[in-house]
Amino acid sequence: QGKQKKARKYAVMKRMISLRDQRINEKDRAKAPVKKKEDPSAIKEREVPQHPSCLFFQYNTQLGPPYHILVDTNFINFSIKAKLDLVQSMMDCLYAKCIPCITDCVMGEIEKLGQKYRVALRIAKDPRFERLPCMHKGTYADDCLVQRVTQHKCYIVATVDKELKRRIRKIPGVPIMYISRHRYNIERMPDDYGAPRF
After folding, report:
1. Closest CA to 125 of 140, 141, 106, 144
2. Which range marks the domain in which residue 131 is found?
3. 93, 157, 162, 179: which has the fewest C-beta neighbours closer than 10 Å?
4. Residue pLDDT, tens place only, 161-173
5. Is the pLDDT of residue 64 over 90?
6. Strand bridging mode 59-60 / 55-56
7. Is 12 part of a structural domain of the chain?
8. 72 lies in some domain
9. Helix (H, G, I), strand (E, B), or coil: what is residue 111?
10. 95 DSSP 8-state letter
11. Which residue has the higher pLDDT, 189 or 113?
């Protein structure tokens, strides 16, 4: 005759008395929320999102040569795999002068990847790259790039990350540069007439 095993119950909370319970003293009892009656004649305030003045229909007037291109970590890695020179390939794609920009977050991500990605780190430290300082905490580059592009519409984002592309497509007037068939391509780049060129 062995002892009967009791099954332990997981995630069982202690039962707590409600603050509205009759057994609690009157002064400690939680008060029922009082609903305010809405005045029909009062002016209703609602916040309308302010669209940037640089967007003329679909055309972003802040975009122009020399193009400033925000580079993501995986874009540098895929460029090395495809044996592409970053700055030269950007110029071949856009037919204009390009300034690749790299944020502190992206630099931190490449440094964290370790010895295997030392070539990517050497490319990122190229003097032709413009270094952008980050003021926020952490080194999550995707959030940083999305926030920067939302505030300033003067950048093209260079990335191969599907999730980041999906987030950036929701922001109007921001073109995306990506790699396919061993060359750089641009997505959503408006031409001189304001119609998107694909």
Report:
1. 106
2. 63-185
3. 162
4. 999 999 999 888 8
5. no
6. antiparallel
7. no
8. yes
9. helix
10. S
11. 113
